[in-house]
Amino acid sequence: MEITEYITFINAPTRQIKAYVEIYLIPGEPPLIIYGDKIHNFDLWEELKYDRADPLGGISANTFSLTLLDPEHLFNPGNATSPYKEYLIPGVKIIPYLGIMGAQEVHYEKMGVYFATDWCRQSDFPTVKIPCKDRLYYEGQLELPETRVTTNITLKNLFIKVFTLAGIPATDYNINLVPDSTIKFAWLPKGTLLSTLQLLVEASGANVYIDRQNVYRVENSNAATTTNFVLTEQDQVISYQNPVTFDSIYSGVSMDVYTPVVTEVKEILSLKEVILSVGVTKFLNYTFTEFPIAKVDSIQIYGVPDARVQLCSAGNRQISLEIYSVAGGIADISIMGSILQGNPQTITQIAPEALALIGEKVFEIKNHLIQDPAFAASYRNTLLLYNSQPDRSVFTSIRGNPKIVLNSKVNIRELQQRVDAHDLLVSRIKTYFDGGLSMDIEGVKI
Questions:
Q1: Cα–Cα distance measured from residue 99 to residue 122, given in angstroms and rounded to the nearest whole number
Q2: In principle, which of 218, 305, 403, 414 could form an S-S bond with 232, CB 3.0–4.6 Å?
Q3: Cα(84)–Cα(142) distance, rounded to whole angstroms?
Q4: What predicted TM-score, i.e. pTM, was given to this entire model?
């Protein structure tokens, strides 16, 4: 269906909304396809980030909740005779689709890829409710190791490094950072994929979310360059709110810009009177006395002449060793190396108009990966642009358009409230289907 035909039918006074879901219930077999007459309702919650006390927000998994009509109890985990009983478990992949009937065919939009967390039989109605989350909910819990210090790496390549550590292939992420930044000395602590990505989000100002094609997207809030759809009261807008709020805005941003330097070589770990067995002795995850470590320079073993290091694995904070000795004995181990000192410089930028309205209210960012002064200046400007205006947030309820996606721009105009036409950068979408379609959209006026 051509886009002009799609717009005509999705905005028509009367329209036919269609839906189906694919449920990948039995491994190795085609999915079950459940059409609209068996779907009681479903809703989706998509967002660029969840709200926190600070304007950066937190990385969030999108959610999908599906309620099926199930008079036969096929999807009831408590039904011993259900042919699907053993497959009604967490992690089942479910893909929802929404469509609009055109002149001759239905045009469907894929609404994301989700994975069941529960199968909840409703006691008062022949339905089953299936709450789901996207892949970020599951993969975000993966444990990642700490990394060695890497020199002269861009933020984009640091994101790639994190995805690689998590085993996520290049086909499963899309990174669009403008501007990018070069980090002279980069290091990552041990943590989950989610906590590591959050560290990079705070260093870059980017959003990280899963799009409807099941791909990680890493992009700035200003990544949308074209306006996709026009929304008016004549075709889509049901309600519109653009509140003026002062309690959530800031009049300034304070940001530390780091200039790490490498110290001279010195002792960074000392192990006294350790026992070396005959053969191999392992020392696992010993923490350096100072960190982050730029480089391990040497490892000296005293007291056992034939002892030698046969394996060394060092991150920026911890080290593991395997030491081989024929005779064994009691030894002292001295590890020499150099550390990084951050040397942060604090730069504060003020928005005069916000300062006049609310006084001094400054948001602080301290992140060791912010090392490029030019990038830091651009970052501060963007933060102030989006967080110093009391009328920046827009909430609108519309009849629904499945092609509207996160971090896209829509244009709102021709409202009876005499609101000036403006673009809206979409940051949150709630979609509800129950035979009909509706959407609640939240975003930033630009």
A1: 27
A2: 414
A3: 29
A4: 0.92
